[in-house]
């Protein structure tokens, strides 16, 4: 397996685990406090629906939405990066730095830590721009 393919596969799996963890985090807080906004979920545990989501769930949902704005673009760029055989020596750095930045972004988002949340976000975006330039450079 090509070095770029290997690191793309690792990054994809790690990003899946991270996104799954955000879902589990939301479930942990909902179940732990038996607080559900959706009527059938509340009824399932014999409660009335909550007026609004718990603050932890709201924050995690916003982190999840930010992932949905960034991770699919990264995954698409990663496929293009491999297809055009862009610089494979940079792949481990770009793919893993992006992945680490997304992990850190989530941790900083859940903890309400600025400016580090923005720094982590920016690092991920820079990785995607570098990937984009590498893809364009590799085209005939």
Shape: elongated
Annotated CATH homologous superfamily? Membrane associated eicosanoid/glutathione metabolism-like domain
Helical stretch count? Answer: 5
Architecture (CATH level 2) name = Up-down Bundle
* Overall average pLDDT: 95
Number of strands: 0
Largest sheet at a glance? none
Model regions low in confidence, pLDDT < 50 over at least 5 residues = none
* Percentage of residues in helical conformation: over 70%
> According to CATH, what is the class?
Mainly Alpha
**How far apart are the first and last residues' alpha carbons, in Å?**
23 Å
How much strand? under 5%
Order of secondary-structure elements? HHHHH
Account of the protein in words:
By secondary structure, this protein is mainly α. The chain has one domain: Membrane associated eicosanoid/glutathione metabolism-like domain (Four Helix Bundle (Hemerythrin (Met), subunit A)). Helices cover 79% and strands 0% of the residues. It contains five helices and no strands. The protein has helices at 3-33, 39-44, 55-83, 91-111, 116-138. The chain starts with a helix and ends with a helix.
What's the short version?
It holds the Pfam family MAPEG. It catalyses: RX + glutathione = an S-substituted glutathione + a halide anion + H(+). This protein is mainly alpha-helical and 140 residues long.
Set down the secondary structure blueprint.
Layout: H1 3-33, H2 39-44, H3 55-83, H4 91-111, H5 116-138
Helix pairs in contact: 1-3, 1-4, 3-4, 3-5, 4-5
């Amino acid at each position: 397996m090509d070095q770029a393919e290997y690191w793309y596969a690792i990054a994809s799996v790690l990003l899946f685990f991270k996104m799954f963890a955000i879902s589990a985090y939301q479930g942990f807080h909902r179940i732990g406090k038996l607080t559900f906004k959706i009527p059938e979920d509340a009824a399932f545990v014999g409660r009335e629906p909550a007026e609004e989501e718990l603050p932890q769930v709201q924050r995690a949902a916003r982190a999840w939405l930010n992932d949905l704005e960034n991770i699919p673009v990264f995954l698409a760029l990663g496929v293009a990066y491999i297809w055009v055989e862009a610089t494979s020596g940079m792949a481990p750095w770009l793919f893993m730095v992006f992945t680490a930045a997304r992990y850190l972004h989530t941790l900083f988002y859940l903890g309400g830590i600025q400016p580090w949340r923005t720094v982590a976000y920016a690092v991920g975006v820079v990785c995607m721009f570098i990937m984009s330039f590498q893809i364009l450079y590799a085209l005939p």
